[in-house]
Write a structure and sequence with these properties.
Blueprint lengths: L8 E2 L8 E2 L10 E3 L6 E5 L10 E3 L3 H4 L3 E5 L8 E5 L5 E9 L15 E5 L2 E2 L12 E10 L6 E7 L3 E11 L10 H11 L14 E7 L3 H12 L4 E5 L30 H5 L16 H9 L4 E5 L1 E11 L2 E11 L5 E11 L5 H6 L3 E2 L5 H4 L15 E2 L2 E5 L25 E2 L4 E2 L9 H21 L3 H7 L2 E6 L4 E2 L4 E2 L7 H5 L7 E5 L3 E6 L1 H6 L7 E6 L4 E4 L11 E3 L8 H7 L2 H21 L3 H6 L2 H10 L28 E4 L28 E2 L6 E20 L10 E8 L2 E4 L12 E20 L6 E8 L3
Parallel strand pairs: 14-15, 14-19, 15-16, 19-32
Antiparallel strand pairs: 1-2, 3-4, 4-13, 5-6, 6-13, 7-12, 8-11, 8-13, 9-10, 9-12, 17-18, 18-19, 20-27, 21-24, 21-26, 22-23, 22-25, 28-31, 29-30, 33-35, 34-39, 35-38, 35-39, 36-37, 36-38
């Protein structure tokens, strides 16, 4: 059957590049009557024909029972979601809305997420979202349906912009009908309403795909493309409207990890195309290249792309001692339509090991103890601690004064707990002591309350310089899809351990090279002290490593014989996860899994057979790669107004707040040596980990300056310093240089002009920097005409 392609269409106003190609989408179902109660109409909120400004939340289906809509306007009411409903009979209908007051785990005195329901021209006199700790049905005003001659419009009208949420709506003229209470009862009603068949149809007329990839993050996208380029027929299934996972516009984490390294320098060529190449988290939406990834997938004619499908079932059989996946089931998160997929091999690239869990694969979660794998840094007893999920956010400068309300329901800050900032980066991280699968809604909501509470304090209670800095700034974006780091990990024939990496143990099936430090996150102690049990800030503890090649046997299950995995759910311990979990490393895993799947196709074999019988073929593919080498370098352009000007900074003595302690030495003298190569990390100064950093240039006698050049970040233009201010010493005190406060910087090279200042001492005060590290190649000072 030829691949079906539908046109690009807008999914939601909350995703700036939310255009998608949908393949095999099930027919739309909005509202349907129930077989068990013909006078009852069941309406899934996510199936509304027009979502308006409401977002679609799929993170907590395991808890809620289905996706739901969220009015995520970070304080500005979102546009109405609307749809048409056909009522079966005329008469009075009781109305039930499945919703909750999302802040009740912390307070029942307030209700931030309130919305109304409109039926035809009648707005019900209820405010939904005002009560209920748990998801439940809330009865509203009875509506009188006077005519059923044509469909009637139903609308969700948000009143606050602060994350009101709704799962489903029931209209019933049946006096005996009672809405279902449990998730299981609700699922039965949903299946009745949607007329779900007992056995869902197979996708693509029952085609047996060579590889079915579940999860469309960087790892899954690379796996699908790599396999397709090597001749495999591939299905790529993703439960969101965009590809990229944590690297998409929905989460906005920059891609980390080295690529194009020995023993296989062509691994990473494909990952490089996933972009972006400039660093920085929580930046503008266009930076994250959602469209680029969609176009790369669309260019591969042997990939069938199934966006907004969530895999929720696995059909397995026993094959000797192992399980074997025969098919998997998926539900469209908007329509509720179901499809099944047959495949020779499957790849779990979900991060949460969702497919492996459904299929009965061996898995682990939390921290192993010392006796499990003899890891030197493991705790004496195992526990459930994981790294957390980040809710990032940013603000923008406007041309006029802005306001933001006091929010008594948000996390409350004071002058001791506030850390002034105009954006939230990776370390706004919650849920390290909670289940990253089943507690996801609460974990994300902690992050929302933290972001809102912080910005409310910044706008209403800060004084002095910071009050002036935020006076014209407004909240511009807050993630409602949290960026996860860790949950389930699937176990393969090899479980990579801390000592394998630190001691550089060699494996005969070495493949992807990991370069990131063993970077593990923990609740930040002062944040724990101030907000016990609801931490939302993290610290990282890093152990530097030498580049290390991960064995291929970490990329497939040890007890499900046709299951690959790539990304953060591969076969590693909690400690080893610290280095392999970053997205460029995961992308290269995807490349290798795609290559291995092509070997499985060629020889009608399974993932373990690639190791035992066809390893040389895999090595040959890893040597060749599946994309041309990018050979790209970041081009650093000196601002025009500084060309030909004399740099005065070379005459100064450099003093810094700290020096990097967990790896190579980056001398502070690099800062003013007059040279920089933005493709050579060795030529920089790097701070130690902290919230703030500074660099001082001190001269023997006063100098007059009115311009500066700051070069910061990592090779290829990544992770420049974000928020900073220039200062100079005046009358024994450091004061701000006018017109030199910079926030949300995303450029490695910054040139500025400012009013003349004369002093012996100048400071670069850095308040925000990626990963808590300031990285500077050069700071220059000039006096120009």
């Amino acid at each position: 059957m030829p691949r079906t392609r539908l046109n690009f269409l807008c999914i939601t106003a909350l995703c700036a590049l939310a255009t998608t190609l949908l393949t095999g989408i099930a027919s739309r179902v909005d509202a349907q009557t129930l077989t068990q109660s013909p006078k009852t109409v069941y309406l899934e909120a996510e199936s509304f024909a027009d979502l308006g400004g409401w977002g679609l939340d799929t993170q907590s289906v395991d808890l809620v029972g289905s996706p739901y809509l969220i009015a995520h306007g970070w304080g500005t009411p979102v546009a109405d979601a609307t749809t048409k409903v056909e009522f079966p009979v005329e008469g009075q209908y009781r109305v039930f809305v499945r919703t909750r007051n999302w802040v009740t785990p912390w307070t029942s005195d307030y209700a931030p997420g309130v919305f109304e329901l409109r039926v035809g021209k009648v707005t019900l006199n209820n405010k939904f979202g005002e009560e209920g700790r748990d998801w439940a049905w809330h009865e509203g005003q009875t509506v009188n349906i006077k005519s059923v001659a044509k469909p009637i419009e139903v609308a969700l009208h948000d009143l606050t912009g602060f994350d009101g949420r709704v799962d489903a709506i029931i209209f019933t003229a049946d006096e005996d009908f009672t809405p279902p209470d449990t998730v299981e009862e609700l699922d039965a009603v949903r299946r009745d309403a949607l007329k779900t068949p007992e056995t869902a149809p197979f996708a693509a007329d029952g085609k047996v795909y060579d590889l079915v990839v579940v999860g469309g993050g960087i790892a899954g996208t690379c796996a699908a493309i790599a396999a397709a380029r090597l001749g495999a027929d591939v299905a790529l299934i993703q439960d969101r409207p965009v590809l990229g996972g944590n690297g998409s516009t929905e989460v906005r984490v920059h891609l980390n990890g080295g690529v194009n390294l020995p023993p296989y320098p062509n691994l990473g060529n494909l990952t490089y195309l996933m972009g972006p190449h400039g660093g920085g988290n929580a930046r503008e939406a266009a930076h994250y290249k959602d469209q680029t990834r969609l176009e790369l997938v669309d260019a591969e004619k042997s990939i069938d792309l199934y966006l907004e499908y969530r895999v929720d079932a696995a059909e397995t059989s026993q094959d000797g001692e192992n399980l074997h996946i025969d098919a998997i089931g998926a539900t469209h998160v908007r329509t509720g339509g179901k499809l099944r997929f047959k495949g020779h091999c499957f790849a779990d690239c979900t991060g949460d090991a969702a497919l492996g869990f459904l299929a009965g694969a061996d898995w682990s979660m939390g921290r192993e103890c010392k006796t499990d794998y003899d890891e030197p840094s493991a705790p004496e007893q195992p526990d459930t601690l994981t790294m957390g999920s980040s809710v990032q956010w940013n603000t923008v400068e406007t041309n006029e004064k802005t306001s933001f309300p006091e929010l008594p329901w948000a996390i409350q800050f004071n002058d001791k707990t506030i850390r002034p900032s105009t954006h939230g980066d990776w370390d706004w991280e919650a849920g390290m002591n909670r289940d990253q699968v089943y507690d996801m809604e609460r974990i994300r909501d902690v992050g929302l309350r933290a972001a809102y509470g912080h910005w409310s304090y910044m706008k209403n209670h800060t004084t002095g310089d910071w009050a002036q800095k935020v006076e014209k700034r407004k909240l511009n974006w807050v993630a409602y899809v949290a960026g996860k780091r860790e949950s389930r990990r699937l176990l393969g024939p090899v479980v990579l351990r801390e000592q394998d990496i630190v001691e550089a143990r060699e494996f005969d099936d070495a493949s992807v090279t990991t370069t990131w430090s063993i970077d593990l996150h923990y609740p930040e102690p002062s944040n724990s002290a101030a907000f016990p049990g609801e931490e939302f800030r993290a610290i990282c503890k890093q152990v530097g490593i030498k580049p290390y090649a991960i064995p291929y046997r970490c990329f497939y299950s040890r007890n499900v014989d046709n299951l690959f995995m790539a990304g953060r759910d591969i076969s590693v311990t909690h400690i080893a996860l610290g280095t392999i979990r970053v997205m460029r490393t995961g992308g290269m895993m995807g490349e290798v899994v795609g290559m291995a799947a092509s070997v499985c196709k060629a020889h009608d074999c399974l993932p373990n057979d690639v190791y035992t019988e066809y390893l040389d073929e895999l090595k040959e593919l890893m040597t060749k790669g599946v994309a041309p080498s990018p050979n790209a370098k970041y081009e650093a352009e000196l601002p025009e107004f500084l060309k030909g000007a004399k740099n005065l900074a070379g005459d100064a003595k450099v003093t810094v707040s700290s020096n990097y302690k967990k790896g190579p030495v980056y001398p502070k003298e690099n800062i003013n040596n007059g040279t920089y190569d933005v493709n050579d990390n060795a030529g920089r100064w790097v701070s130690d980990y902290d919230d703030g950093h500074w660099v001082d240039l001190t001269f023997d006698k006063p100098v007059t300056v009115n311009a500066t050049l700051i070069v910061s970040g990592q090779a290829n233009g990544r992770t420049p310093i974000r928020d900073f201010q220039l200062q100079y010493e005046k009358d024994g005190k450091l004061v701000d240089l006018p017109k030199t406060f910079v926030t949300d910087n995303d450029s490695p090279i910054v040139g500025m002009r400012f009013p003349e200042a004369t002093s012996k001492r100048f400071r670069l005060e850095i308040s925000q920097s990626p990963e808590g590290l300031a990285r500077i190649w050069e700071w220059q000072l000039y006096q120009i005409k």
